[in-house]
Hints:
Blueprint: H1 19-24, E1 33-39, E2 42-47, H2 74-82
Antiparallel strand pairs: 1-2
Amino acid sequence: MHDDMTTVLTVRGQTSVPARFRKEAHLQPGQRLRWYRAAPNEFRVVVETPETAAGPLAALGYAEKFHPQGVPTTEQAMRVLREGEDS
């Protein structure tokens, strides 16, 4: 027998996690869920724990989005920040 675990998407793009799943996974308000596309009409939801949450290395490559000509070195960035200090 298949339980009906259907939820509805709101106009703001929000939905509910069925109570049975919340209880089984011990989910709490404010807890993060990470979504992945598994197939065109199928998604996978992973409960983030301290072990699965993005760590400091997740930021690697982020600066490249804002510096297509190349990420400045620390020395170059500090030179820009210090411009005008002696004035």
